[in-house]
Amino acid sequence: MPEYEFKQSVRVSKETFKLILEKIENHPVFHNNSFCGQTDVRIQLALCLERFGCYGNGISSGRIARAYGVGRGTVSLFTKRVIKAILSYKDEFLSWPSQNERKKTSFRFASKYGFPGCVGVVDGTHIILDQKPSLDPETYWTRKQKYALNAQVVCNDARKIIFFQEGWPGSVFDCTCLGKTSLIKKKDLFFLKMSICLVIPLTYGKYDCTV
Fold first, then answer.
1. In sequence order, which residues have a C-beta less than 8 Å from that of residue 209 and are 6 or more positions away?
2. Residues 211, 191 contacting (CB under 8 angstroms)
3. 170, 146 in Cβ contact below 8 A?
4. Beta bridge partners of 169
5. Do 170 and 148 form a contact (C-beta atoms < 8 A)?
6. Is the CB of residue 147 less than 8 Å from the CB of residue 133?
């Protein structure tokens, strides 16, 4: 499959696909003691990634099942396996930096962007919901006229996510959601009393947290 068609299908390049595959293919979830072996992990991963990249009816088990020639129940099974395998590496790829790493990040922020004492930038984003929630749907209705969850994301100067917390309804302001995160409520676990500060967009308010 040409690169552009491959990326259009699974939403990642072939190189990225191989990296993900190499990371998860030996996970126990893809192996069993049955004489009837599982479907190739490459197929399970491709199916799951294509599903992740769809919206609305495109994510349905029926459509994916027809595209890959598997049963509807198999679509859910493959998806659960891939999600479990990927999440097992969450702490390896998404973790709060150590004190030494924060110092290095602060130096890079200052030298590259002119922000002294910065270890990360934070902003809110919406995780769009395909359907209206049955309980208190109006609280999930956003200013962008969609139902969604609010997520607070912090990334470093290399655009790597170092903190993520979601779950609040989409109508809740970013400032409120941020104030409820462990990053703010339990800041002693993330910061030391030094002169280096976490940068917070002033649009939504500012919290005095130190690294």
1. 183, 184, 187, 190, 191, 197, 198, 200
2. yes
3. yes
4. 149
5. yes
6. yes
Q: Measured in Å, how far apart are the chain's first and last C-alpha atoms?
A: 47
Range list of H helices, the chain:
3-10, 14-24, 41-52, 61-68, 72-87, 90-93, 99-113, 174-179, 182-185
pLDDT in tens, the chain (211 residues): 899 999 999 999 999 999 999 999 999 999 988 778 899 999 999 999 999 988 777 888 999 999 999 999 999 999 999 999 999 999 898 999 999 999 999 999 999 988 888 889 999 999 988 889 999 999 999 999 999 999 999 999 998 999 999 989 999 999 899 999 998 888 888 887 644 445 455 444 444 444 4
Taking the model in full, what pTM does it have?
A: 0.76
Domain boundaries of the chain, sorted by first residue: 3-90, 94-204
The amino acid occupying position 193 is K
Q: Work out whether the CA dihedral 112, 118, 119, 122 comes out positive or negative.
A: negative
Residue identified by tokens 């200013």 is: 143
pLDDT at 32: 85
Calculate helix-pair angle for 61-68, 41-52, nearest 10 degrees.
140
3-class SS of residue 55: coil
d(CA 148, CA 150): 7
